[in-house]
Automatic annotation (TrEMBL):
<feature type="compositionally biased region" description="Basic and acidic residues">
    <location>
        <begin position="13"/>
        <end position="23"/>
    </location>
</feature>
<dbReference type="InterPro" id="IPR002471">
    <property type="entry name" value="Pept_S9_AS"/>
</dbReference>
<dbReference type="InterPro" id="IPR001375">
    <property type="entry name" value="Peptidase_S9_cat"/>
</dbReference>
<dbReference type="InterPro" id="IPR029058">
    <property type="entry name" value="AB_hydrolase_fold"/>
</dbReference>
<keyword id="KW-0720">Serine protease</keyword>
<protein>
    <submittedName>
        <fullName>S9 family peptidase</fullName>
    </submittedName>
</protein>
<dbReference type="InterPro" id="IPR002470">
    <property type="entry name" value="Peptidase_S9A"/>
</dbReference>
<feature type="domain" description="Peptidase S9 prolyl oligopeptidase catalytic">
    <location>
        <begin position="485"/>
        <end position="701"/>
    </location>
</feature>
<dbReference type="GO" id="GO:0004252">
    <property type="term" value="F:serine-type endopeptidase activity"/>
</dbReference>
<dbReference type="Pfam" id="PF00326">
    <property type="entry name" value="Peptidase_S9"/>
</dbReference>
<feature type="region of interest" description="Disordered">
    <location>
        <begin position="1"/>
        <end position="23"/>
    </location>
</feature>
<keyword id="KW-0645">Protease</keyword>
<keyword id="KW-0378">Hydrolase</keyword>
<dbReference type="Pfam" id="PF02897">
    <property type="entry name" value="Peptidase_S9_N"/>
</dbReference>
<dbReference type="InterPro" id="IPR023302">
    <property type="entry name" value="Pept_S9A_N"/>
</dbReference>
<dbReference type="GO" id="GO:0006508">
    <property type="term" value="P:proteolysis"/>
</dbReference>
<feature type="domain" description="Peptidase S9A N-terminal">
    <location>
        <begin position="10"/>
        <end position="424"/>
    </location>
</feature>
Length: 702
């Protein structure tokens, strides 16, 4: 018996065929009309959405509401549980910087963070000494969507640069705040990437401007008090295939311009001693060569994969002559030990690495060369390295958690190797780690590889195939999914679910090769790995195929679409959040924000017939057929610049057309948000509760 009885008639999308011929291959897209021609303008002003499109999206939302109507009480219960695990009036442990320490806090009922500072050695729990710098809830008042981009203070602590997006389109407005008075200066900088880098004198800053195609193509220098129109262009990136960011060094000696795609990088640096100079090129971009900088006084430490160092090494070069010809090896490349990032301080070099699928923090004394590791013994865990805001320090900060262990924040003395526990994540409604089990198992893949899968479940869960399972996957851009503490998934575990994360190829969970084996012509490995994880969990008795709900978002949403086409019978349901499912059409449209920078990840079907055929072979939208698809929930954001709303909209329309008797197919479009969904702290929990309610309903656990 269907868990979706008595559904109304789903919306029927009109077919308006558009044909396209590339490399002698002609394709016809019946739903191409759903791509709004005025998308650039609509992202900035959603009221400009075409009326026919708006009616269709609203009809889809109404159908989705009807299908999920019987889960309203469950959604409310799930939301209450998730909210109950979050300390509402929580605050961070402030980070010391000069005479102050800076932190963030939430108030009971608040959705947005509040930024504050205290005297350097003050007690952050003493609210009497806190100076409120920015109240996110106040700034968000009256807005359907509001996302802060942080607050960055000047070296003299007089001003703060903060940014916000109030459309969900990721066009950020920058403002300058007088931190003494709490008032904003007249300066308003529009259409930025969301952050900036202060000059040391605190009188000007650098920022990236987003062009009409939503690409950060220019770096400007803004002087406080001057109009944006008079800002000096510092650097323009002519290649639309590259992203760009701007930042400052810890010693305030340099402004960094970071230019990169997913496999190639280039840095240009500007000495803060002469802000009017032209940025200096460090090392010219070479396809497939990545590098990044950390200033260490008179040298730069350079993390790079140059010279076949697939899992990266660390070099050094004089700050006066940082060119590649002067690079000398400091930390050698070790195959299988992936160095993820690095930091430099007055007496120590620090880096985060992953070995055997688990993270470690490494410390090297810059004088003696002696090294030691910060590591933990659990079977699966997560480490976060936040470092320090000051260069001349022996103390850094890091966080630790596992699927069962709430996050712990430590200060660590690199000199004495002493850890100081600063904070343990509170779970107000209660949490006993002993009630849960976290494990890491390995699923045999189609080609002999083994796919790590992290599991969380209650100790009393029967492992006889009867438990439902939510299986999460991503598998792109080299992003590894950490096995950290997640209070939300406890609501599933408490309902008898096995919560599983498949660490599939396309991420870097097993080193850089793990990433390379899941991109371009090898992309199908990602999908096969996920299916192999599902098969292994069934074989080992953790669940059964008719109880597995698959979940993934963005590029992980492409994964969802691909496995739905490849093995629909192996999943009871699929949750695809902002799913990148119209891969071929998107990669053929070089006007879209992310298309040129994404070609090194997926292939360029405009230039290459071979790459066209790779993508066409797996693109979820292009491979929808007459199959027994399980129930599918697709989630979308109207102003999403990363995965445009029309991708899931077209996909759902085609699923209904090709397989009308399967499904059902539900589309939820957030008409006032973008890629990340709702922006508020608890608003986001409402969306997760909705997704989990779908999983519980499909699993028959209501």
């Amino acid at each position: 018996m269907s868990v979706f009885p008595n559904l109304p008639t789903p919306p029927a999308a009109e077919k308006k065929p558009v044909s396209d011929t590339r490399h002698g291959i002609t394709r016809t897209d019946d739903y191409a009309w759903m791509r709004a021609e005025n998308w650039q303008a609509m992202f900035k002003d959603p009221s400009l959405l075409d009326a026919e499109l708006r009616r269709h999206l609203e009809a889809e939302n109404a159908y989705m509401d009807a299908a999920m109507a019987d889960t309203k009480a469950l959604q409310e219960k799930l939301f209450a549980e998730m909210k109950g695990r979050i300390k509402e009036d929580d605050s961070s442990v402030p980070m010391k910087d000069g005479p102050f320490a800076y932190g963030t806090a939430f108030v009971t009922g608040g959705e947005q963070p509040r930024y504050f500072r205290i005297p350097r050695d003050g007690d952050h729990k003493d609210e009497a000494i806190r100076k409120l710098l920015l109240d996110g809830d106040k700034e968000a008042r009256g807005k359907d969507y509001f996302r802060l981009a942080g607050l960055d203070h000047t070296t003299d602590h007089a001003f703060g640069l903060w940014g916000y997006d109030d459309k969900g389109s990721e066009y950020f407005t920058l403002r300058v705040r007088d931190l003494a008075t709490g008032e904003d200066l007249p300066d308003v900088i529009e259409n930025t990437g969301g952050g900036g880098a202060w000059a040391p004198d605190g009188k000007s800053f650098f920022y990236t401007l987003q062009d009409d195609n939503h690409r950060p193509s220019k770096v400007f220098h803004h002087i406080i008090g001057e109009p944006q129109s008079s800002d000096r262009l510092v650097y323009e990136e002519k290649d639309h295939g590259f992203f760009m960011g701007v930042g400052g060094s810890l010693l305030d000696d340099f402004i960094y311009i970071d230019i990169h795609d997913h496999e190639t990088s280039e840095f240009r640096i500007l000495s803060t001693k002469d802000l009017s100079a032209e940025p200096l090129l460090v090392a010219v971009r070479e396809e497939g060569v990545e590098y990044s900088l950390a200033e260490g006084g008179d040298v730069f430490f350079i993390l790079t994969n140059d010279g076949s160092a697939k899992d990266f090494k660390i070099m050094e070069a004089p700050v006066t002559a940082p060119g590649k010809e002067n690079w000398k090896e400091v930390v050698a490349h070790v195959p299988g030990r992936l160095i993820l990032n690095h930091m430099a301080f007055a007496r120590h070099l620090v880096w985060l690495q992953r070995r055997n699928g688990l993270p470690e923090i490494m410390i090297r004394d810059r004088v003696s060369g002696e090294e030691h590791a910060i590591a933990f013994a659990e079977e699966a865990y997560s480490l976060g390295l936040s470092g320090a805001a000051e260069y001349d320090t022996d103390v850094i900060r890091f966080s630790y958690s596992s699927m069962t262990t709430p996050s712990q924040l430590f200060d660590y003395s690199m000199a004495t190797r002493e850890r100081t526990l600063l904070k343990t994540q509170e779970v107000p409604s209660g949490h006993n780690p002993d009630d849960y089990v976290t494990r890491r198992v390995f699923a045999p893949a189609h080609d002999g590889e083994s796919v790590p899968v992290t599991l969380l479940y209650r100790k009393d869960t029967a492992l006889d195939g009867s438990a439902p399972c939510l299986l999460y996957g991503y598998g792109a851009y080299g992003i590894s999914i950490a096995a950290g503490f997640n209070t939300n998934c406890l609501s599933l575990a408490d309902r008898g679910f096995v919560y599983a994360i498949a660490h599939i190829r396309g991420g870097k969970d097993k080193g850089f090769q793990w990433y390379e084996d899941g991109k371009m012509e090898k992309k199908v490995n990602t999908f096969k790995d996920f299916i192999a994880a599902a098969d292994h969990l069934v074989k080992e008795g953790f669940t059964s195929h008719d109880k597995i709900i698959a979940e993934g978002g963005s590029a992980g949403g492409m994964l969802m679409g691909a496995v739905a086409n490849m093995a629909p019978e192996k999943f009871a349901g699929i949750i695809a959040a902002v799913p990148f499912v119209d891969v071929l059409n998107t990669m053929l449209d070089d006007t879209l924000p992310l298309t040129p920078p994404e070609w090194p990840e997926w292939g360029n079907p405009i230039e290459s017939e071979e790459e066209y055929r790779w993508i066409a072979a797996y693109s979820p939208y292009d491979n929808v057929g007459e199959k027994s698809y399980p129930p599918i929930l697709a989630l979308s954001g109207l102003t999403d610049p990363r995965v445009t709303y029309w991708e899931p909209t077209k996909w759902v329309a085609k699923l209904r057309e090709k397989a009308p008797d399967a499904g059902p197919y539900l589309l939820k479009t957030n008409m006032a948000a973008g890629h990340g969904g709702k922006s508020g702290r608890f608003q986001r929990l409402e969306e997760i509760a909705f997704e989990y309610a779908f999983a519980v309903k499909v699993a028959g656990k209501m």
